Structures are given as structure tokens and as C-alpha cells.
């Protein structure tokens, strides 16, 4: 289970990039492509394996109003289930 002190990162072979054709961010991984919504893409950009979930939540709180740690944890849990994110 992901905790506020967990340090999420993209799994090896996974990268977030901008797709000019689709005019949106895409998450590339060996099994395929995901098109995250803007909020999920913003979360993914902060998943460097150094920042904690609490720090990611605080950074998103500077950009968006009403950011809740539980919502960030839910996004990261779904990404973990899709096998594109992991944490320590």
C-alpha cells in the first residue's frame, strides 16, 4: 500500500512524453501506450523516486485547488495496478 512517505517512480522502460499528433501527454511502456488525463500526467511528472507522496501532493496543491493526498494515492495505486509505477 502506498503511504505519504512512499517515493513513487516510473518503472523501468516506462516514460512520459508529449505526443504532437495527439496533442497530449502519453505514457509509453513495453506493453503499450496510456493517455493519462492532465492531472495524472502532472502526478507522473513528479514521480522521480525522490519526492514522497506528501511532497507530490504539496506540489500539486500549488497548482490546483483542493488537492487531497487520498486522490494522489488513488492515482498512483491505479498506475501501480497498470504496472507503470512503483514506489519504495
TrEMBL record:
One of its GO terms (biological process) is pyrroloquinoline quinone biosynthetic process. It comes from the Bacteria. The keyword Chaperone does not apply. Pathway: Cofactor biosynthesis; pyrroloquinoline quinone biosynthesis. Keywords: PQQ biosynthesis. GO terms for molecular function: quinone binding. The keyword Transmembrane does not apply. Monomer. Interacts with PqqE. This is Pyrroloquinoline quinone biosynthesis protein D.
Amino acid at each position: 500500500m502506498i503511504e505519504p512517505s512512499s517515493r513513487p517512480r516510473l518503472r523501468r522502460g516506462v516514460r512520459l512524453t508529449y505526443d504532437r499528433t495527439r496533442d497530449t501527454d502519453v505514457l509509453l511502456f513495453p506493453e503499450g501506450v496510456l493517455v493519462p488525463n492532465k492531472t495524472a500526467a502532472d502526478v507522473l511528472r513528479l514521480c522521480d523516486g525522490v519526492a514522497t507522496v506528501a511532497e507530490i501532493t504539496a506540489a500539486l496543491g500549488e497548482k490546483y485547488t483542493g488537492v487531497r493526498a487520498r486522490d494522489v494515492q488513488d492515482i498512483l495505486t491505479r498506475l501501480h495496478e497498470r504496472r507503470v509505477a512503483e514506489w519504495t
